[in-house]
Amino acid sequence: MYPEILTRKPLVEAIFEVRWALAPQADGTLRDPYYQLLVGRLYDQVRSQFPHWEPLPTAEFPEHMFPHMIQHRFRVTEGGWPLIQLGPGLLTVNDTEGYEWPHFRNNCAFAVDALQRAYADAKPPLAIEQAMLRYIDADVLAAETPQDFLKKLKITTEVPGPLSEELSAKDEMIGFNLQWTFRAKKPKGIAQFRITQGKKQDQDAIIWETAILSKADDISDFLVQSADWIHDAHQMTHDWFYKLIEGELLEKYR
């Protein structure tokens, strides 16, 4: 059994996202005819748990200029986490160091319910076209080489033969960007894993992302079965995460 809570977890951010269809206009833009009403109505629905409303600079411009881009944030406290974000055709739930799955799951369910309530009398009705659950993790390299850390994540890399002839044993890999994409069955969609080098707290780090993305026919009934989708997406990403860190890294993060 894997522990549900890690005291030194490498999590940078957990992100749940839903997107809904926007209506094409004669001028070539995409618009949500209900969006102006939605912003206030959604705040009314979430203010009991996310009372701090934070408009972003993009909120000063017409929404058709920023389709599927965040314009408003609703936080538990000023500058605090978790938070709900809203833009034309886009809603996200985000958390960071304080993340715990039961609370995050409840916040996701709360946000989806609030969105449905805010859209209850909209015409045309809300049509979800994409759902995603994504985790971003990172760990500082310290004295390790990137290759050393990749091995701890069960990832092996080899320099292509023609290139290795030009490198000596002292040459160190200083950058990489790897991604794998697979068809997922439960929930239906696409599973993605990406790993690269970057910074964490201004130090060299390995950053890895695990995500499940469902769209089109795979989520045609999302609003009815959102709780099942969220549960299944977490099961997959949770399983991948622990299988990758099993061993030395798991003991480090406990």
Verbal overview:
It is globular and about 60 Å long. The strands form 2 sheets. It has a 9-stranded antiparallel β-sheet with strand order 4-5-6-7-1-8-11-10-9. It has a two-stranded antiparallel sheet with strand order 2-3. The longest helix has 24 residues, at 222-245. The protein is built from 6 helices and 11 strands. The chain has one domain. The two termini are 13 Å apart. With 254 residues, the chain is of the alpha+beta class. A hairpin with a 2-residue loop joins strand 9 (177-185) and strand 10.
Strand count = 11
Helix content: 25-40%
The span between the termini is: 13 Å
Beta percentage is 25-35%
| N to C succession of SSEs | EEEHEEEEHEHHEEEHH
> Rg, please?
21 Å
Strand order of the largest sheet: 4-5-6-7-1-8-11-10-9
Mean pLDDT: 91
Tell me the count of domains: 1
- The shape, in one word, is globular
SSE blueprint:
Blueprint: E1 11-20, E2 23-24, E3 30-31, H1 35-46, E4 52-55, E5 72-75, E6 83-87, E7 90-95, H2 101-118, E8 128-140, H3 146-152, H4 161-164, E9 177-185, E10 188-200, E11 203-215, H5 222-245, H6 248-253
Antiparallel strand pairs: 1-7, 1-8, 2-3, 4-5, 5-6, 6-7, 8-11, 9-10, 10-11
